[in-house]
Design brief:
With about 190 residues, the chain is α/β, with parallel strands linked by helices. The chain contains 8 helices and 6 strands; from the N terminus they run βααααβαβαβαββα.
Length: about 190
């Protein structure tokens, strides 16, 4: 089966969905600001290299325990779905979206956009904590092959905004597209990474 792989944040949409969702929730559920001091301390620890990004991300979404999550997610996508890049609607093959963003946030947009498979970071919907590993870099490839048999698929096109973090998924594609400000820029993998 021929498939296309898409990153989500700053690829299909022009923003980081997790960060924007946090901002949306601060506005609509201001009591979650009580968690800001804890989040700030953890952010500083991450910036100083004292904890890794996955550990930092484990506390980023603790606020979901304090909000009506399904209603918040629906309201968020009601506001931001129109920002999906138009070229994403022209999919012709089996489409796989692989993202580090939370499953509780992307499940709704998968239903709305109708892409075939969503692979993303799993979170406990009651506590917001990450379950397992953050879905980025090599983990994206591992999770793809967990979902689809490697021998049964041929990756045709790969789309991402991040040349730095998405080398592993770019390495799978026949064609690679760097997304810059919503525009698809085709490139040769060997020329960029060698």
């Amino acid at each position: 089966m021929e498939i296309d792989i898409y990153d989500f944040d700053k690829t299909i949409v022009p923003f980081d969905s997790g960060s924007l969702f946090w901002g949306y929730c601060i506005v609509h559920y201001p009591w979650i600001a009580l968690l800001l001091p804890v989040q700030f301390v953890w952010m500083v620890l991450a910036l100083l290299g004292m904890i890794n990004f996955t550990k930092f991300k484990k506390i980023c979404f603790l606020f979901v325990a304090l909000i009506p999550l399904q209603r918040a997610v629906k309201g968020f996508w009601d506001r931001h779905e129109k920002q999906v890049h138009k070229w994403f609607y022209d999919r012709k093959r089996y489409s796989v979206v692989i993202s580090a963003s939370p499953d509780f946030l992307l499940n709704e947009i998968q239903k709305r956009l109708g892409f075939d498979l969503l692979i993303c970071t799993r979170h406990n919907k009651k506590t917001g904590a990450i379950v397992g590993s953050n879905c980025r870099s090599e983990e994206k490839v591992r999770r793809l092959y967990e979902a689809l048999n490697k021998d049964d698929i041929k990756v045709m096109d790969v789309y991402s905004d991040s040349l730095k973090h998405d080398r592993p998924i770019f390495s799978l594609g026949e064609n690679c597209y760097h997304i810059v400000k919503g525009k698809k820029i085709k490139f040769n993998f060997d020329e960029v990474y060698n």
